[in-house]
């Protein structure tokens, strides 16, 4: 089952954003034809905004597409650090606003209670995600699977819950993340990487070693038929 990681190198961020948007749109369209609906998992941060805007312009039946997040800061959508806010501002615009968005953050007394609510909200999406698009930090984290997190072992190995509350190594420290097992349960996994520094980290992460050192290994080294890296310097 194991296949080589397919690397798609692009000369600029703009070229990458468009190519990635077209790749994801094609996979979602195939899912819509096959199943009548599709599911997309995206990440936050600065890197994906251009991709989001390009994807929103793709001709898709957005009313049949479910969108959720790989991870979230434990903050409300009115907070500038909210990944949900980012997705609503840059992806769920125009025709794409018809998509069903399932946020991870839910108002609750604790991050753990919020994670439990997220698990319940995600329950209808118990099949494999169609496309998961992840970023990666220069410390080798992806989603909110951070090296050194007290909850990292659970996030890497727990197969009972799709979403966990975890502590990050940088503020805001309280995060919600899909587990490695839930992220891997996907038809297509994409890593969106920009910059030479992250490219070097990815090269190191591709070498053998513990997942706890570079948590992104849980996704890129796992046996999976469709693993892709979209990269630009």
Please provide a written account of the structure.
This protein has 233 residues and is α/β, with parallel strands linked by helices. The chain has a single domain, classed as Rossmann fold, CATH 3.40.50. Helices cover 33% and strands 22% of the residues. The chain has 8 helices and 10 strands. Strands 1-10-9-6-2-3-5 form a 7-stranded parallel beta sheet, with helices on both faces. A 3-stranded antiparallel beta sheet has the order 4-8-7. The longest helix is centred in the first third of the chain and has 23 residues. The model has no long low-confidence stretch (mean pLDDT 96).
Q: Helix share of residues?
A: 25-40%
Order of helices and strands: EHEHEEHEHEHEEHEHHE
Radius of gyration: 16 Å
Q: CATH top level? A: Alpha Beta
Structural class: alpha/beta
Report the total helices: 8
- How far apart lie the N and C ends? 30 Å
Characterize the main sheet. Answer: 7 strands, parallel
Q: Order of strands across the widest beta sheet?
A: 1-10-9-6-2-3-5
The low-pLDDT segments are none
The CATH architecture category equals 3-Layer(aba) Sandwich
The pLDDT mean sits at 96
Q: Return the domain count.
A: 1
Q: What shape does the CA trace take? A: globular
Number of extended strands: 10
């Amino acid at each position: 089952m194991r296949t080589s990681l397919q690397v798609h190198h692009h000369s600029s961020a703009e070229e990458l954003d468009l190519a990635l948007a077209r790749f994801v749109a094609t996979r979602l369209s195939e899912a819509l034809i096959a199943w009548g609906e599709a599911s997309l998992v995206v990440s936050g941060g600065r890197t994906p905004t251009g991709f989001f805007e390009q994807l929103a312009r793709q001709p898709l039946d957005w009313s049949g597409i479910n969108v959720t997040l790989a991870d979230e800061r434990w903050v409300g959508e009115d907070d500038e650090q909210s990944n949900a806010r980012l997705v609503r501002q840059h992806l769920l615009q125009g025709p794409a606003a018809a998509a069903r968005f399932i946020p991870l953050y839910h108002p609750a007394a604790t991050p753990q209670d919020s994670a439990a609510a997220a698990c319940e909200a995600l329950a209808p999406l118990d099949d494999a995600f169609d496309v998961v698009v992840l970023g990666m930090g220069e410390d080798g984290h992806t989603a909110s699977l951070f090296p050194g997190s007290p909850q990292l072992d659970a996030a890497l190995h727990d197969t009972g819950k799709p979403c966990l509350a975890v502590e990050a190594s940088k503020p805001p420290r309280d995060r919600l993340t899909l587990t490695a097992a839930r992220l891997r349960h996907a038809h297509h996994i994409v890593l969106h990487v920009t910059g030479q520094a992250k490219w070097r980290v990815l090269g190191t992460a591709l070498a053998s070693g513990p997942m706890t050192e570079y948590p992104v290994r849980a996704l890129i080294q796992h046996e999976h038929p469709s693993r892709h890296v979209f990269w630009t310097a």
